[in-house]
Amino acid sequence: MKLSWKNLLLWSLPIIITFFFIWQGLFAPIANENNNIANSRMTYGRFLEYLDMGWVKKVDIYDSGHTAIIEAVGPELGNRIQKIRVELPTNAPELISKLKKNNVDLDAHPSKNTIAIWNLVGNLLFPILLIIGLIFLFRRSSNTSGGPGQAMSFGKSKALFQMEAKTGIVFEDVAGIDEAKEEFEEIVTFLKKPEYFTTVGAKIPKGVLLIGPPGTGKTLLAKAIAGEADVPFFSISGSEFVEMFVGVGASRVRDLFKKAKENAPCIVFIDEIDAVGRQRGTGIGGGNDEREQTLNQLLTEMDGFEGNTGIIVIAATNRADILDSALLRPGRFDRQVMVNIPDFKGRLSILQVHAKNKKINKDVSLNIIARRTPGFSGADLANLLNEAAILTARKHKENITLNEIDNAIDRIVAGMEGTPLIDSKSKRLIAYHEIGHAIVGTLLKDHENVQKVTLIPRGQARGLTWFTPAEDQNLISRAQIKAKIMGALGGRAAEEIVFGDAEVTTGASNDLQQVTSMARQMVTRFGMSKIGPLSLENEDSNPFLGRGMQNSNEYSDEIAIKIDKQIYDIIQECHQKTLEIIKNNRVIIDKLVNILIEKETIDGNEFRQIISQYTEIPEKN
């Protein structure tokens, strides 16, 4: 709020009036009394002598009889009337009779009740301050866009409302999710030309649920629909419906759909709908009343007694398993569209979109980057090129080279680069560990190719070995899983062969966790053991506390013993084969370790060239 002299006077006027009354009630009487009090003093005994000699003409008593101001005249006072202050004793019953006997003018002045004045001030001060605060609150709210009633509008919708399609995003800006785009192109046609479908009796879908991991472009796709269809776009997060007051969330849902009906046809986008749409009555202690009422209102608005013609609700979540079943049925969310992690073709398209505003060296191939980034989402790829651009600017280069992109990938996957290790026994042990991973992976037909081996620490890792998959693999064979297990055991096997069992370190702890997990999945989920083609464990567990707590194991204790034995046998078999590979290639390993300690990083092509001088490298599948 703009502060002016007029506003300053308005706020200060009640305070000035309050202090004026305080002054009049407290300090003014005291000041008046002080004017009557003389500067000279006299003892009580001397006062009685003056009284006996007839020199006292007038007595004024103050302070409840404790103080007296006398007017006396006599030779000792120069025959002039003077005012003298006398402190009276507490018990002096003879004083009044003496004063009457000598015909002295007597006057008593009662003391001011300051306690009553302070009580009055205390009772007035708080209401005055409260009134000032309310005036300030309403003046401040009136200066905002919400108006004077904004302070009481917490039940209204907080949706990001756009009367025009101002998202600025169309389908051309969304890459890597072509299947989802095809689904929504039909939705756009529904909104722009509904007569194509209504003539044959088709109805517009009421809701579309976008399901996929974070960063895959669900929100971006919803904005592209509004941009293509040129319709109003409402955007709200599921968490904005949930408040501590019961009924506020339901009120916001009603207000949101009321606005949408007034501007139909339109799109209502609810991001992270799992915040409000999770299953009702979950867990041991039941559900949340506010969330359940909000969900019930949302269900009613989407498919209730009133029709919402022309309103399409698009919701996004990465936890579809916790959504309420009533929310997912046809009539509410008629379609569920999966927005998955992009494949190689999708990653290449996303990189081409994000590379338009980047100065990338002409020698950089986006195909190579797409090959090196399996499992990256669209947000990850955008962050990758941004990190590469930051590194380029930090090095004062004119354009982004492959070196900066490699460093950016390493930083995103493994963490920030640490201080290189000094040449010591620890550095040599780490070098043997990483070369063990790399040489086992290279000499196995079903393992991925080595991309590079480095001793430069990143994150918690003191050294790293990178593998590049030949292509995106949706189906993995038993031989490939065993090859991954052997590759993960290569570091521990190298430590055992070179340094002995007594010098084995804890560096393989993460590798052993991965090995045990892969072996267990082979036995319990994939049926790749002697137990047979049985699925003994379910991958999906119930996410709610209390659900399924009474469920027993899906197999007997006898099967559990067999599972443990099969896991042990698979790992032992792979471990023995890995030890044989390390023993048979000890000369190559020693040479590679010396090169790695000297250069700290060996590229995958150089690594394979050195090995090919000593042994034949199998052709990868």
Automatic annotation (TrEMBL):
Keyword Cell inner membrane in annotation: no
Parts of the chain that traverse the membrane: 7-26, 115-138
Pfam family, one: FtsH_ext
Location of this chain's protein in the cell: Membrane; Plastid, Chloroplast thylakoid membrane
Predominant subcellular localization, coarse grouping: membrane
Positions bound to ATP: 212-219
Domain AAA+ ATPase: 204-343
GO CC terms of this entry: chloroplast thylakoid membrane
Active-site residues, Swiss-Prot/TrEMBL: 434
Keywords from the named record: ATP-binding, Cell cycle, Cell division, Chloroplast, Hydrolase, Membrane, Metal-binding, Metalloprotease, Nucleotide-binding, Plastid, Protease, Thylakoid, Transmembrane, Transmembrane helix, Zinc
Source taxon at top rank: Eukaryota
Cofactor needs: Zn(2+)
Cofactor binding, note field: Binds 1 zinc ion per subunit.
MF terms in GO: ATP binding; ATP hydrolysis activity; ATP-dependent peptidase activity; metalloendopeptidase activity; zinc ion binding
Membrane topology term: Multi-pass membrane protein
Assembly and binders: Homohexamer.
Protein family according to the UniProt entry: In the N-terminal section; belongs to the AAA ATPase family. Belongs to the AAA ATPase family.
Annotated protein name in UniProt: ATP-dependent zinc metalloprotease FtsH
Phylogenetic classification of the source organism: Eukaryota, Rhodophyta, Florideophyceae, Rhodymeniophycidae, Ceramiales
